[in-house]
Amino acid sequence: MEKAIEVKNLTKIYKGGIVAVNNISFYVNKGEIFGFLGPNGAGKSTTIKVLIGLLRPTRGELFLNGVDIVKHPEQIKRDTGYAAQETAIDDRLTCLENIYLQGRFYHLSREEIEKRSEEVLKMFDLFDRKNNLALTFSGGMLKRLDIAEALIHRPKVLFLDEPTLGLDVQTRQTIWEYIRNLRRRNQMTIFLTTHYMEEADALCDRVAVIDEGKIKAIDSPENLKQQIGGDIITVNFSEVSNGKIQKVLGEVRQIPQVKKVNLGRDKIYQIVVSQRGDKIIPEIFSISQRNGININSIRLKRPSLEDVYLHFTGRTIQEKEESRESLIKTRIMKRKLRR
Description:
The protein is built from 12 helices and 14 strands. The N and C termini lie far apart (49 Å).
């Protein structure tokens, strides 16, 4: 299959020795929706900015449709569209004026902009609102307009950095459908970053799990789940000393079918078993009772992408993201108040 993006040994080190991206390699096939799954600070946005020519890599080889990204940044900017985490929309302009401004940045003629703006605004169901000020738009409409702007110059590859960050669940799912339609209609290659497990699962053909600047795993969401194998048992023990819990977990690890034990959120332990998790649960109860520990709750489930992330990184993605999402929502509220 022909590749749209090739990255070999990419490293980006900022001033002060901060390693944002640490020797990563991957590729994206043409027409694929490819996702970077990871928390804030994992290196997702830095990677995108290097790929679209906004940042120079410290080391590495990078190609977009066979063109060297470092040697030909002007061509790369023409061939890529980019929608950042926070929308680049001017509230004081109308929908159409925002699109026109973006088109002029790419040196499109007035006639070209007029034709293409109708095309992209209809694609995102915004054409009937073309003469309305952006300050009257909801968060979901602003995000749709932002993506429409990124398409005005007809890029070959579209980069979406956290495309639904701060949006409610219903609006998020609406944006997902627009992204799917965009790929179906235009056979466009789409590279997106996200920290939403369900977003990566719903949209991406393949996902790279990235944490602290390193790629931990790459595959389709389904194959990544299968790599964990078997079942997941989640257990919440009663409030006892950590020493007692560790003794129980030590014995649980000795069960032949147990592959791994992770600590999740709120002192909930994740026990990965190779097969027949229903047969392991009675053994966990027996070990706990023998050590004088009660179990508050226990659950058996199939692996999810959240389990995948915990498996490859040893922690949950939400631990870093909840405070950040609250910050984004606060910014949106302040923005509305200024209006």
